[in-house]
Write a structure and sequence with these properties.
Elements lengths: L2 E6 L2 E4 L10 E5 L3 E5 L5 H9 L4 E5 L3 H9 L4 H27 L10 H5 L4 H13 L5 H14 L11 H11 L6 H16 L1
Parallel strand pairs: 1-5
Antiparallel strand pairs: 1-2, 3-4, 3-5
Length: 199
């Protein structure tokens, strides 16, 4: 079968032929280069070209939603690994936040886990979180919330538990951020990375 690739960010990823839509553009590389809409390629001719092991086919999606969905579903292993690394960094930052909070909690209310702490409705708890987050890199309430959603949405349960140097961690953030990460989330992760590397 031909190798079929699609560019996502800086990476080329394998594509399943069935995922290509009629209005996606395809480029078939054999001895010549010819670009046309997939819908204009005769079905029997397409199947013949896909089966040809000497071909390379590149796909340019008409809709970025398809690309984002593949990216979000962990289509690219490097992006998945970078996402896991960011979740590890956030877990480490959360551990620092929980530990700092429990050292001097308002109303002597301690928490066993970060989820309980971050979902507390008690205003004195929320104020203390904001105060500690400022000390732990200047992370805002909104950044804490958005990074938490990011981790929840992408948590695959695989945590390497490794520490990354600042430049490596920032590169992992750069890789993971190609898949629809908000600027607030990126800014929050940068603060966590910088704080953890300075600690």
């Amino acid at each position: 079968m031909s190798k079929i690739f699609e560019r996502i960010g800086k990476c080329w990823n394998d594509v399943n032929p069935e995922s290509i839509k009629p209005d996606d553009k395809v480029v078939l590389y054999t001895l010549i280069e010819e670009e046309k809409f997939f819908g204009e390629v005769p079905k029997n001719g397409w199947n013949k070209q896909v089966r040809n092991t000497k071909n390379i086919i590149l796909v340019k999606r008409n809709s970025t939603m398809t690309t984002k969905a593949m990216c979000l579903n962990g289509f690219n292993e490097e992006i998945r690994d970078a996402t896991d690394d960011l979740c590890d960094i956030l877990s480490e930052w959360h551990s620092l936040l929980l530990s700092e909070y429990n050292e001097d909690p308002p109303d002597k209310i301690c928490f066993d886990n970060i989820k309980g702490l971050l979902t507390s409705k008690d205003q004195s708890v929320r104020n203390k979180i904001a105060e500690i987050a400022q000390k732990l890199g200047g992370v805002t309430k909104e950044e804490i919330y958005v990074m938490g959603l990011y981790k929840l949405a992408r948590n695959r349960g695989a945590h390497k538990g490794k520490e990354l140097k600042r430049d490596v961690a920032l590169e992992r953030l750069n890789i993971a951020s190609v898949c629809n990460m908000s600027p607030i989330c990126i800014q929050g992760f940068e603060k966590c990375i910088n704080f953890i590397n300075d600690a």
